[in-house]
TrEMBL record, chains A, B:
Keyword DNA repair: no
Family indicated by similarity: Belongs to the DapA family.
Molecular function in Gene Ontology: 4-hydroxy-tetrahydrodipicolinate synthase activity
Lineage: superkingdom: Bacteria
Binding positions for pyruvate per the UniProt entry: I213
Protein name (database record): Dihydrodipicolinate synthase family protein
Positions annotated as active site in the UniProt record: Y140, K170
Keywords: Lyase
Gene3D superfamilies registered for this protein in UniProt: Aldolase class I
Keyword Lyase: yes
CDD domains: DHDPS-like
Alphabetical list of PANTHER family matching this protein: BLR3884 PROTEIN (PTHR12128:SF67), DIHYDRODIPICOLINATE SYNTHASE (PTHR12128)
Length: 312, 312
């Protein structure tokens, strides 16, 4: 692992919505402060943030709220990849204007079966339009959702063309052999491979990867960060198994509503249950089952509900 | 077929882009005028319009251009369905503000495997937020691209809840048995089923459907409209076969670039070749092959290049 590599654990931060389903900047700031206190970075506007259920304007407004509240730009990796070239460019520029240099970028995901040439053209066009040498793009490979995969030859071509800009990838294929191929085949000393969930954290670190960007970073951050920091210890496999058990409790349900149910329940803040359609909030019985199962694992979210943490 | 039913042929109008890839309102107006002259309605901002490669702002700007140029609002059926609830609501309201009442609405398409309850909640939320009794939604079922299908029970449930608003569907499943099921199973006298391509036009009309909304409406409108108007004539099957042959020539290539290549070539206006990434324009050899094959079929686009038609 090159010493130039970045690394760590990021949480695709869940987005709170008000009764009118408008994004709630104040609650988001509060959750981000808690997450930072637990040691995870903020991959705001990821899949688990319901980012694509929000307009570009709504996301830019939340970015403004976070920066205004003093959340460190260097700890953020906002998702800025949209279907529309112009939205992607606008969001990315907005991040840079706030001194946020790391972005996680989906390919345009409406059209399916597009060519590597077309995807290369997409990322190129964004990079050239943004035109800022301080931009660091983390590619976002999540074929189960986007249905638009990023092949290793495409990644290599982007790296060769933009070695300073293409900083890494999040692999949410859910396929360890794919992560392994990225770790082994991509030719660049500074390419940061993040696993898309903590299920592959230990394997990823052992393979020279950078860490993970994981849904459950929203709820179980300290334990995931602990494995990241101590992965060469003897108890690493035991730690990984404990992380898997917690993740399993969430995976019984639709992940985003389950994450929000945990934040709502452990933080005693029912507004957190809300999701935007097409997702549906967890029902009472499901939420109860989730919490019961988590309690059995000794799970907790210490210090979560610090309602005093208002936007300054 | 109920006499209340609407019907006809619509074209998902291809969107011209300038050298800077900005949408070109003037060229769009010109193409829309030509299409209207050929007898097809304007399903602007459809899949073949690269609608999801444009921001909501860009689409609203084009809508303004069209209306300002005197394009009849009653002949438009803009696509307004986006991933983000707020974008869908904003675009739909913008259409209504221009006296455009018919819209073609994709479900939110980022999250996959969502429930019918979640999709029902999505459409409900849009309908309630827009809050305009004159809204007519045509559902847009295009699982090969959106990867988010609209089931017949969901369609029926939406119709039962919003009988005046849910006006019909475009079935771009490419699966005739599905269109047939929609024609036969949906219980509503005023539900308009549009085939997603002219390949199924004759079958759709024979089954009591409303017409079709088809990519090749951009290039072969008069012949498709002719079949629509004379489908009970003896030569209907022969007409259908001739339409299929033209479509086949386009289907050798990626459809959107091929449509644009035809508009560019027959209209002697090379700017039309341009697409936004992740799509790629047809190469010279491909374009030549397309035109050669179309010429062999006696294909033409009479009156296409009327550059005098500036925005007033």
């Amino acid at each position: 692992m090159s010493t130039d590599k970045k690394g760590g654990i990021y949480s695709p931060v869940v987005t709170p919505f008000g009764a009118d389903l408008a994004p709630d900047g104040q609650r988001l700031v509060r959750h981000c402060r808690w997450l930072l206190g637990q040691g995870v970075g903020l991959a705001v506007f990821g899949t688990n943030s319901e980012a694509n259920s929000m307009s570009a304007q709504e996301k830019m407004g939340l970015m403004d709220d976070l920066v205004k509240a003093g959340i460190a730009p260097g700890r953020m990796m906002p998702g800025t990849g949209c279907c529309a070239l112009t939205d992607t460019v606008e969001l990315t520029r907005h991040a840079l204007a706030h001194d946020i240099h790391d972005v996680l970028m989906l390919p345009p995901f409406y059209y399916k079966g597009v060519s590597d040439d077309g995807l290369f053209a997409s990322y190129s066009e964004v990079i050239q339009r943004v035109g800022d040498a301080s931009l660091r793009i983390y590619l976002y490979h999540i074929p189960p959702v986007s249905q638009v995969p990023l092949s290793i030859p495409l990644i290599q071509r982007l790296l060769d063309a933009y070695p300073r800009v293409i900083a890494g990838i999040k692999d949410s294929s859910g396929d360890w052999s794919n992560t392994q191929a990225m770790l082994q085949s991509v030719q660049s000393p500074d390419f940061n491979v993040y696993a898309g969930s903590e299920s592959f954290l230990l394997d990823t670190l052992r393979g020279g990867g950078a860490g993970c960007i994981t849904a459950t970073g929203n709820v179980n951050p300290a334990a995931i960060v602990h494995l990241y920091e101590t992965w060469q210890n003897e108890d690493a496999d035991r730690q990984q198994a404990a992380l898997n058990a917690v993740r399993q409790a969430f995976q019984q349900f639709s992940m985003i509503p389950a994450l929000k149910a945990a934040v709502a329940s452990y933080g005693d803040d029912p507004d957190w249950f809300r999701v935007r359609p097409p997702l549906l909030a967890l029902g009472d019985a499901q939420a109860k089952k989730l919490i019961t199962d988590l309690d059995k694992l000794g799970f907790s979210m210490p210090g979560l509900n610090q309602k005093a943490g208002h936007i300054g």
